[in-house]
């Protein structure tokens, strides 16, 4: 049975009551414990800095050359908080409700309410660190709107919010590194989890410069390693983003939850060809002032594609502002899954724009006319410049071309209310876990969750676990489990290095990405998913028999790094397909064509699927075992989502 450990009592009192009831570690005893933090993005950096500030000994690990390289910097548009500075009707409960509804009622109420409750503290913390949030004329922090909300609650620093927040967390982390409370291991990749008597007690890493395989012991392990969007090869994630740490922990007993829930972001620069290795996200904040449209007829779209017309020559009456037309209450600020599906419908209808025809317009002409170019530039200038640098098109003079792309992953390692996985002593924070967003994440909520988990949740919950250990003794680094796990890692590396086939690792990764996008992407069917499962199984055999891994272990070896990550992506891809097949309903980012309303919206099956699907590893090449955590809704009513 899965025990979510959600505290009893009224929703608004659960977290406060739980904090009081948790056991504490005496300040003098905190320095006797060591905590390993894997990943140094917003969740990892904030957790490491907070825990070290409390007195714990912390080791951090990241595969980049600096924590500043973490992919959190790419979250551009903002961070949500229920401050209600605009006095427009926002509240903690409204943020909670919007998040539950935006996730299509597939998230745990207690976790989501805590996230909304803690959000108000996050902003204060970041301001105190010097994060340069935009301010309005009265001196208060400014806000803008994001999808799925009818209030303005998104705090921002131009189009660089993630980067500025990470600099704040990185500064706090650096302070602790200087004090000697944090030991930072850069260019180190976690390759396995070490368990002693069923508890997480260490990790095995590879020094990516020298190839040295190292063992690190600790009383608790925190996974803060982000999402698995690169299973699709093309995504908005940095190319190094991977699932390896989470997946290896999964194979050691940590359940993997809701893997089929993938967020497709509607505002990305369209694919231009097979030469691309990643896609570029244009912030959702642009939908505040940009209007999404396509021509009303296929004929006009064809003229745009061939260059016979330019966008400015399309008359207003010949434009279809389809989001404004279909969803008058929310307009261009509908949630991401809704905006993405509608963009796909326009393209499938033959009304796409751009040379490929696989794009829609995001037009700022009205905003520039209404606000002036200087105002628009002040709000979005760096985003406009980025678009210009990539496309050689000036968005001040012509509409941006956008199309949905894989972005955030809502599924992840299963955790209880304390953020602990099914392996005692192993925690998962931020995008690495599944907990707070259900089937679809609202914009500006990723930064909120990462910092919430790191600054305000894990310092309490990990302390409760450590206080109950009953011993302050160091972890025995000579325990046989370390050597056994280390040998398994070395054996896998040697197996990978022995592969001398004809296919490159990127060839296999691209093929996996095409399968996932085609059959487990924006729309899924039972027939397509069944086909995908067979294709992935065949691809797995091809990988282990015909891929070519170059070089040796004892050196900087990107070929070896990629090979291990792609091997894990292939196994994850099969589980994603299994999860999508099992969930024969539509909800949020999981859209089964067999389950839709007459108007083409996602149709849930609350009678049969109001649960978290948590999968347990059962052995190599064995079907995973499904465990269900039933979701109970006591404070919101399950209704069909509507943004009209």
List keywords for this structure.
FAD/NAD(P)-binding domain, 5-stranded parallel sheet, Methane Monooxygenase Hydroxylase, Chain G, domain 1, about 650 residues, Flavocytochrome C3, Chain A, domain 1, 18 helices, globular, 5-stranded antiparallel sheet, alpha+beta
Give your account of this protein's structure.
The chain is α+β, with helices and mostly antiparallel strands and 644 residues long. The chain folds into three domains: 11-261 and 410-469, 3-Layer(bba) Sandwich (FAD/NAD(P)-binding domain); 265-406, Alpha-Beta Complex (Flavocytochrome C3, Chain A, domain 1), CATH 3.90.700.10; 480-606, Up-down Bundle (Methane Monooxygenase Hydroxylase, Chain G, domain 1). It has 18 helices and 19 strands. Strands 5-2-1-9-17 form a five-stranded parallel β-sheet. A five-stranded antiparallel β-sheet has the order 11-15-14-12-13. It has a four-stranded antiparallel β-sheet with strand order 16-10-18-19, with helices on one face. Strand 18 (611-616) and strand 19 form a beta hairpin. Helix 16 packs antiparallel against helix 17. The chain is globular and about 75 Å long. The two termini are 39 Å apart. Residues 35-447 form the FAD-dependent oxidoreductase 2 FAD-binding domain. InterPro entries: FAD-dep_OxRdtase_2_FAD-bd (IPR003953), FAD/NAD-bd_sf (IPR036188), Fum_R/Succ_DH_flav-like_C_sf (IPR037099), Fum_Rdtase/Succ_DH_flav-like_C (IPR015939), SdhA/FrdA/AprA (IPR030664), Succ_DH/Fum_Rdt_flav_su (IPR011280), Succ_DH/fumarate_Rdtase_cat_sf (IPR027477). Residues 509-643 form the Fumarate reductase/succinate dehydrogenase flavoprotein-like C-terminal domain.
